[in-house]
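User
Class, as today's exercise, I want you to study this protein, comparing sequence with structure tokens, and judge whether sequence predicts the tokens.
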Amino acid sequence: MRIASWNLNSAKARLPRMVDWLADRQPDVLLAQETKATDESWPADAFAELGYESAHLGNGRWNGVAILSRVGLESVTRGLDAQPLFEDVVEPRAIGATCGGLRLWSLYVPNGREVGHLHYRYKLDFLAAVGAQAATERARFGAHTGFGLLGDFNVAPHDDDVWDITAFDGLTHVSAPERQAVTALMTDTGDEPLIDLSPRASADHDDLRPPYTFWEMRMLGFAKGRGMRIDLALVNPALAQRVADVWVDRDARKGAAPKAPSDHAPLVVDLD
């Protein structure tokens, strides 16, 4: 069974590339973020032709999350129970479903903008709400059910998860409160901690480069290796024990128009 998580940076712009990628990599479940689509504009028919059911939550602006599955799509939950508001709006940033017996969430954590900004406070509150949801669901589904939080967390958990930690001094994505919030939702949501699956940098088993998942489009970020590992797969022991391989599909970050890439690469988790 193959699970993947991918920040699309627009489902409409990425649709031709998505169709090719789904046909080539054959994931059983794809957790998508930043679709920038409404529920009405979400291209469900295109994915159905490839054998995928899909559930989407979006308003067509800068957010949007989805789950595509060809192994069942049950108990779909749109949004977090205690999700905070930003500017009086509950943004479409979280969707969960049971797929192939696994309880999975696609998450698009707020960027935070800058330390001390209202959006930064919102980011920390959102992560706390993810933790509360995880605690509730882990208790509900039990320790024997595979459980995972996957998506764009907009947090690099460790210094070596960014290309140059000195370049991020005082910035978001690496601040102590953000990292502590991720640690808390891993350690405080069940009897056993969630596990941060550490990927390989590409499909090549001998690739020893840092396993970044995001590179900025500007200033030749990808070509110069100025990346970050901010797309995460946090899973419970029941799911972790089934993991055979974890890797970044770096090739999906390459290319140009008319099938231009997202600024994120898919994170792929292969299970026995």
Remarks:
- The first strand starts at residue 2 and ends at 7.
- The first helix runs from residue 11 to 25.
- Helices lie at 11-25, 44-48, 118-141, 176-187, 237-240.
